[in-house]
Amino acid sequence: MLIIGASGHARVIIDIIHKLNLSIKYIVDADPDIMEIENYEVLHKVSDAMKKHTAVIGIGNNHTRYKIVREKTIENFAKPIVHPDAVVAENLKMGEGSVVMAGAVINPAAVIGKHCIINTSSIVEHEVVLEDFVHVSPGTVLTGNVKVGEGAHIGAGAVIIPGITVGKWATVGAGAVVIDDVPDFAVVVGNPGRIIKYNKCENE
Questions:
Q1: Which of this chain's residues are annotated to bind substrate (predicted)?
Q2: Is CATH 2.160.10.10 correct for 81-198?
C-alpha cells in the first residue's frame, strides 16, 4: 500500500494498517525535511512504480486531500480502512480512501463518501450522509439523519442534533452544539452553535 502524507494523521493510519495485517510499500510526503516515520523511509515524489499500488491519503486537511485526488497523480485508491476496534454496521455504503479510527461507531443506513475521516471515538448515527472529503473529528456525535456536505470539518466533541444539514466546506468548531442548518462555507462555534464567519473557497 502507498500512503500519501507523513505527519500525525499518517501515524494513525500506519497503526491501523499494521493491525489489519496489511503491508505498506511506500510513504510519500512533499516535505523534503521529513525523512522517516514509524521506521519507514519517507520518499518525496510519486514514481510510476508506486502508482500500481493502492493508496490512502494520510493527511487530515480536507482541502489537501481534495487537491491530491483532483490532480489525478494517484490512480488507485484503497477500499475503506477500518480499525478493528471500530463498530461499523453491515448495511452502509462507504467510498474509497475513507478511514475509520479506533472506537468510532457508524450505525445502519449511514452513507460515507470518498476520502472521509471518521476519527477516534466519534459516533455517526443511522441514516447520516457524509459527502466526499468530510472530516469528523474525535468524540464528535452526528445524530440520526444528519447530512454533511463535501469537505466540511466537524471539530472534536461537537454534537449535531437530528436532521440538521451542514453545508459544503463548512466548519463546526470543537465542542459546538449545532441545532440549526449550517450554510455552505460557514464557521459555527458555541452552544448553541452560531455563525461567526465564512470560509474562503480554496478549491477553484
A1: 7-9, 60
A2: yes
User: What distance in Å separates the CA atoms of residue 180 and residue 200, rounded to the nearest whole number?
Assistant: 21
Residue 83 annotated as binding site:
no
Distance between start and end Cα atoms, the chain: 30
Q: Which among 44, 53, 115, 126 is annotated as catalytic?
A: 126
Work out the percent of the chain whose per-residue pLDDT is above 70: 99
Which grid cell is 168?
459544503
pLDDT score, position 142: 98
Short-list 84, 85, 161, CA closest to 125: 161
Q: Which three cell numbers stand for residue 99?
A: 478511514
Known binding residue 47? Answer is no
The CATH number of 2-71 is which of 3.40.50.20, 2.40.50.140, 3.30.870.10, 3.20.20.100?
A: 3.40.50.20
Best CA proximity match to 52, nearest among 69, 27, 28, 77: 77
Is 44 annotated among the ligand-binding residues?
no
Whole-prediction pTM: 0.95
Return the pLDDT at 48.
Answer: 84
C-alpha–C-alpha distance, residues 43 and 161, integer Å: 43
126 belongs to the catalytic site: yes
Cell numbers for 134, please give them. Answer: 468530510
Quick: pLDDT tens for 104-162: 999 999 999 999 999 999 999 999 999 999 999 999 999 999 999 999 999 999 999 99
